[in-house]
Design brief:
The chain is 49% helix and 13% strand. The protein is globular. It has helices at 7-12, 33-42, 45-49, 52-66, 79-83, 112-129, 143-152, 160-168, 170-194, 211-232, 266-272, 284-289, 291-305, 324-336; strands at residues 70-72, 88-91, 95-98, 135-141, 198-203, 238-242, 257-259, 277-282, 310-314. The protein starts with 6 loop residues before the first helix and ends with a helix. The structure holds coproporphyrinogen III. The site of coproporphyrinogen III (CP3) has 22 residues, from strand 3 and strand 4.
Amino acid sequence: VSGTPKPLLQALRGERPAQVPIWLMRQAGRYLPEYRALRAKAGSFLDLCYRPDMAAEVTLQPIRRFGMDGAILFADILLIPHALGQDLSFREGEGPVLRPLGEVALPEGRDIHATLAPVYETVARVKAALPPACTMIGFAGAPWTVATYMIAGRGGDDQVAAKRMMWGDPKGFAVLIARLEAATIDYLCRQIEAGAEVVQIFDTWAGALPETEFHLWCRAPIERIARGVKARHPTVPVIAFPRGAGFHYAAFEDVDAVSLDGGVAMAFAQQLQKTRTVQGNLDPQLLVQGGEAMRAGAARLLDGLAGGRYIFNLGHGIVPQTPPEHVGALVEQVHAWR
Ligand code: CP3
């Protein structure tokens, strides 16, 4: 088994795999009927995240159905605030709800692994069940994006509450980011020790930060996390997804790959790929559309990027409206590309 090459890891090391590797953000989720069935049995979304048997099954569902090259751990970026002691629930149709940080301070000295142990168990179970060429992907949210949910108490399209703290209480904000950084390094290392072979750091709201703050609160923390992980696990690749980073994608140096959102131009992606692996960036709505439009969009990415260091993915996560057949057709097209 250890002799089977893993195309996703090869692409991350800058080697040329026999086929272009593909995985999709949110590849486990509500667009799959088998996910909806298991989700209904689990009760709440958090219960599903903390039940290793069920979370492992949900992680494996898209792999069985479509044969992606990577299996991403089924969990959520908000498990870290939960483990740090912040109340969290997921409400139907509303998304995450947390008790905003201003209302109660986080307790000190809590052992996050006491809460997160089931996640490591999920990683171990998935790893043991994976096809030999499939790579186990761990992940965490980046400090800035996780902080936006912790401060506002909910998701949303503007990060006003987080910016008010960033500029209004710079000391408190710096302490929060530092705590998240340290917890995230530990969390990712434990995922690796349980079997994760690569980790991705999701900074969904990176694009909301002005240039100076982008470097302070998005890029620098992600790079410190990457170095912290590599200090303990030097061979494990790290992928950064600073969504909406634009020109600043080029500033990430201490990671092995960057995941590109849909706004990144082909010519810029080709520049980036000279010095690191790039991943992305098909519009998730093209996966809903399917047919010739999806085929043409995917072909353009393959022709433009697959000659270099490249992993096929979307520019952001799969949406629930996606017909599963379209995902199957996309995986086939990517694997057939020469
Ligand atoms: O397949 C995968 O990609 C792995 C699992 C995964 C989930 N969330 C499962 C999930 C991953 C990697 C995430 C990351 C995540 N979670 C991010 C960063 C990536 C991104 O999409 O930008 C963010 C911002 C979150 C926070 C979060 N979790 C929100 C805002 C929501 C509600 C919105 C929604 O889609 O319902 C969630 C819930 C969530 N996380 C679901 C899933 C499958 C849906 C929950 C359900 O089944 O009801």
